[in-house]
Amino acid sequence: MEYKVITKDGRAKRAEMKTVHGTIQTPVFMNVGTVGAIKGAVSTDDLRQIGTQVELSNTYHLHVRTGDKLIREFGGLHRFMNWDRPILTDSGGFQVFSLTSLRKIKEEGVYFNSHIDGRKIFMGPEESMQIQSNLGSTIAMAFDECPPSHADEQYIRNSVERTTRWLARCKEEMDRLNALPDTINREQLLFGINQGGVVDSIRTWHADVIREMDLDGYAVGGLAVGESHEEMYHVLDVTVPHLPEEKPVYLMGVGTPANILEAVDRGVDFFDCVYPSRNGRHGHVYTNHGKLNLFNRKYELDARPIEEGCGCPACRSYSRAYIRHLLKAKEMLGMRLCTLHNLYFYNTMMEEIRDAIEEHRYADYKMRKLAGMEGSQE
């Protein structure tokens, strides 16, 4: 891997990251395909067409459904899903947070009951690395626990200390796997995850500790899980300066266009979120003038595209009225077109962000973008 900061505008970074599966221009939004596909019937050919740089899949979900060993037989996730650009795999750690009633956390790892069929599963740092190695992703995420942001401070401290021990085990196991001659991607990268809820002292302590481990990149996790936007931005203000500037920074699971614009201004490179695809499947589409709900009756005879001047496949060919008709008729094409539009909107916004940073006009761009999207035309 080679990560190079091209220029800065304030704290906003414009960088590029060379990987074995191609170069990533940052800041970047990773399109979320949890089980190796974007929900909404979006293909990898579609992803290329709408300017996707990185696809994100989930270790836990691919492990319990289809299975990483089967995917390894196909030569890894890239070949399995016909995607020749970078893939980031989330470690499964977030499921420790989200499957509260189905798991038990121990020092060795986490005992799950599968949300699919109830069967017992164990996943620890070594198992997560082995699964991700079988998938052959470009970037593997370290296995961690995501404690609730407003949990008891002592619980958060204990959790973060265990996550730190898990990270050391992840690094050791990945080094071992990457040295094996039959490993699918021997250039697989490892990102560590900073945790600490909304407790400044734990966040900064953890950032200081993990930066000394010389990882390929660093994520800020445990946000967008119940805290306010102001608390999220404060955590970034406090934490990001403690992470190495010469390495990429990834804000996990975030977020809205406004969240991304604010986080870029705080030095973040990588983003992912299910919002564009999830909202698209429910007929909610993003525009530069606010979000639209295409189920609303006022679009019944609206011959305009979702957004004038948009180059996405939906806006190039179809009207709001037709897409509304598809949604009302529960035709999959309606959800597909809305999802494509939203992902295109996010990918295009990231391109605009990169241009604005390069031209040292990011503050003005952010102000205008936020002002334009404040209105809601729902």
Describe this structure in words.
The chain has 378 residues and is of the alpha/beta class. The protein folds into 2 domains: 272 residues, Queuine tRNA-ribosyltransferase-like (TIM Barrel, Alpha-Beta Barrel), CATH 3.20.20.105; 94 residues, no CATH class. Helix content is 42%, strand content 19%. It has 15 helices and 16 strands. The strands form 4 sheets. It has an 8-stranded parallel beta barrel, surrounded by 4 helices. It has a 3-stranded antiparallel beta sheet with strand order 1-2-3. Helix 14 runs antiparallel to helix 15. The protein is globular and about 60 Å long.
Keyphrases for this structure?
378 residues, alpha/beta, TIM Barrel, 2 domains, 8-stranded parallel barrel, EC 2.4.2.29, TGT-like_sf, metal ion binding
Question: What topology does this entry show?
Answer:
Layout: E1 2-9, E2 12-19, E3 22-26, E4 28-32, H1 44-49, E5 55-58, H2 59-64, H3 68-73, H4 77-81, E6 87-90, H5 93-98, E7 103-105, E8 110-113, E9 120-123, H6 125-135, E10 139-141, H7 153-178, E11 189-194, H8 200-211, E12 217-220, H9 229-239, E13 249-251, H10 257-264, E14 270-272, H11 275-281, E15 284-287, E16 290-293, H12 313-317, H13 320-328, H14 332-358, H15 362-373
Parallel strand pairs: 4-5, 4-14, 5-6, 6-10, 10-11, 11-12, 12-13, 13-14
Antiparallel strand pairs: 1-2, 2-3, 7-8, 8-9, 15-16
Helix pairs in contact: 6-7, 7-8, 11-14, 13-14, 14-15
